[in-house]
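step 4 of 6: structure.
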Amino acid sequence: MIRVLIADDEDMIRTALAALLRLEDDLEVVAECRDGESAVTEAQRLRPDVCLLDLEMPVLDGVDTAAKILRSVPSRCVIVTRHARPGVLRRALGAGVSGFLPKSRPADDVAAVIREVAAGRRYVDPEVAADALSDERSPLTDRELDVLRAGARGQTVAEIAASLHLSAGTVRNHVSSVLGKLGLASRQQATIHARERGWI
Amino acid sequence: MAGVSAPAPVRSPAATYARDVRVTWWYTAASVMFLHVIAVFLWAFVVVMRGTPLDVVLALVGTAGSVASGVLLLIHYRREPFDDADDSAKRLVWTPVLLGIASAVLFGVGAGSLLVAVALVAQALCTVRWRGGIRGRLVALMLVVVVASWVIEATRLNPEGYVSLTFALPLFVTMLAPLTATSLWWWDIVRELDRARRAEGRLAAAQERLRLAGDLHDLQGHHLQVIALQLELAEKMMGRDPDAAAEQVRAARVSVDEARRGTRDLASRFRGVPLPDELANAADLLRAAGLTVDLLVDTEAGRAPADVLGPVVRETTTNVLKHGGGVSASLSLSRHEGSWVLVVENDLRGTAFPVGDGAGLSGIAERVGPVGGTMDATRLGDRFRITVRVPEEVTA
């Protein structure tokens, strides 16, 4: 019996998917969660074999939830998403997620992936992978991305400089180089641009 | 890691244009200020040499005021919105204009010259963005007035004054206002062109969006109608013939899948990246999955047929990711004897699955066959290698 936790903030989809998975003889849905936080708590309490996590959840998204679960529980995580922004797959693989599939897959396929993953294999849906590969390359260097990431929550140049152990002047140089490459006017715009493309 | 992988950072064309427009402004402003400063300093110099102390003070205050008003007016000119309906900026402009006129009068008194006073007033008035049609007439009028005051001053008012010293002195201040006006007019044209270029880009994007919205509506509308019919049929048959009803429900599910695939194809029409980027993305993904990746890409790889080799990269990368377990992989795209050669290799490490499963491999062969390419899969110990060759003449 494979014990499964499902987390999705859309009630209709979560209950329907749980009902369909319960029809499979070898799967047992042990928890249904509406957000990432409760998924982490439930996972720590119930230690399921596989966690099926929706990517687009408020507060803690699927990848962050998976990272937290994987740090504390020997479960395997599968991310389900409606629209996989390319950078997400890279983040998910980096976090140690075992499976990634689009929401459009029928429940039979989801069950098959859960079995694959429970058996220790990895599953990345071809559609998601194709999206990730046809991703626009970031023209920014790693350091420039670090600067954008460190300033993503509206931190000042001085705060970014402190967190990256750089001088304020260097940070300013990186920012102006980023703006030049992207043809944008402000750091906020650059951050949004980079986030939309999954670079940070 | 070997070979060429990271694409050189490129400045977007939009950024280059924006920079060129900025440079044009600085060139315009610098030349206007240069002329202004030269004209005023020449006069101030002769006043300092030959005037009374009071004249010198008046002339120096006039110089400072005139140059300051020139700078302020140029700053204002740069910031002013293009829109004629926006009057909020107009009020601010009169302060530097009045400063310019007052300085011109002081200077004129100090230098004892009608010409220099009139010419500096004209300069202040010509550094304002007047509404369409006014500027041309104003500049012509100012030129006439300035030349007239030169003539009057030289013949009647003060024939022995500074005007008679050297020809350059009156000529510079006379030309100041018209040259400033033409420089700024030129700058306006550059700005207008830049704006038109941006508007064109926005228009093209808007048209593309409209077209996409239309396509999407047609596609979804059609599929939803089919699905509604199939479900209606299933509902009616439920009681009488459950098997037939189930068949209709299955058909509806197939329709949903078709709709989804169509929508996806529509969206992916706008994607498509060059092959080197696709390979770099593949290497990134594999690295994120914990593999050591060697990437070797020919510098000319941008010319390789992406529509043939792109799907091969996707298929093989997906398989490496899916079956996991490996610790290293290598991707290479090179040219050899008139062919593009794509080699994807990874280790198996106990997994039973090779890099491409049966269906995937035959899919690749089907894709490269029609363009005269070949596909070859080999197993060397615990490493699995897929080699795809496509003739160079095939263009993307």
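step 5 of 6: annotate
 - Residues 1-10, 350-356 of chain B have pLDDT under 50 and may be disordered.
 - Residues 202-268 of chain B form a domain with the Single alpha-helices involved in coiled-coils or other helix-helix interfaces fold (CATH 1.20.5).
step 6 of 6: archive
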